[in-house]
Amino acid sequence: xxxxxxxxxxxxxxxxxxxxxxxxxxxxxxxxxxxxxxxxxxxxxxxxxxxxxxxxxxxxxxxxxxxxxxxxxxxxxxxxxxxxxxxxxxxxxxxxxxxxxxxxxxxxxxxxxxxxxxxxxxxxxxxxxxxxxxxxxxxxxxxxxxxxxxxxxxxxxxxxxxxxxxxxxxxxxxxxxxxxxxxxxxxxxxxxxxxxxxxxxxxxxxxxxxxxxxxxxxxxxxxxxxxxxxxxxxxxxxxxxxxxxxxxxxxxxxxxxxxxxxxxxxxxxxxxxxxxxxxxxxxxxxxxxx
Length: 290
Ligand SMILES: [Fe+2]
Ligand SMILES: [Fe+2]
Fold this sequence. Notes:
Elements: E1 8-9, H1 42-69, H2 76-129, H3 132-155, H4 157-162, H5 165-180, H6 184-192, H7 197-225, H8 231-247, H9 249-253, E2 265-266, H10 269-280
Antiparallel strand pairs: 1-2
Helix pairs in contact: 1-2, 1-3, 1-7, 1-8, 2-5, 2-7, 3-5, 3-6, 3-7, 5-10
């Protein structure tokens, strides 16, 4: 695979990677963001819109599941990384809330409100039904999905070029931080349960939950636009989305490999490639003194 040329085999987090939260202070003007901001395509755009609806509560779930076990870690560096993970996910929740508010202001208020409520419900059900260990296993699995989507966004110029500049930096910044902290939940989970079965079972059930949510809400957005009655647009967009998802399938399946570790693929060079652009996009009130 061509992409694998960008990757170097590693087993631990590269020394250059620092997990530090950064509030960005993104402001999205509903009038300036094109309705179909990704590839001028309703299906592609609404798929990412649907994912964004799941982020504020989903990432809080990740944080809670990691926080539950953090006291089992005695290593000071790893404690720092866990703090970085918690801080980064908290920032993602906040910035995606701004993005979701922009969607609501564009007229998708009902879908956005419902989507957020369903995501919250699913996370609360997860907290009630699964043990803290299973919750952490689900988090580790879903973090793999965010990491491979992040890799696709950062490594394929054709994806970034299709995102409208008014929202592009949100996705670049989020993708960078998902790459930086991609092993934190996984390493913590492996401390608690080095076995294979629960890791994979939780990964598959988490994937199903995410697939259910993202398909249902992509469809709801499309329905509001009346695209569900436009078979050609639907087929064209569905094909483009299907192609994109199929292209990340080998990376997705890599999680099933016994002995898998997120840093087996060292793609940290991508972080360095975009870091300056992200720093330049930080709102003045959140810039840290050098
Ligand atoms: Fe995140
Ligand atoms: Fe994450």
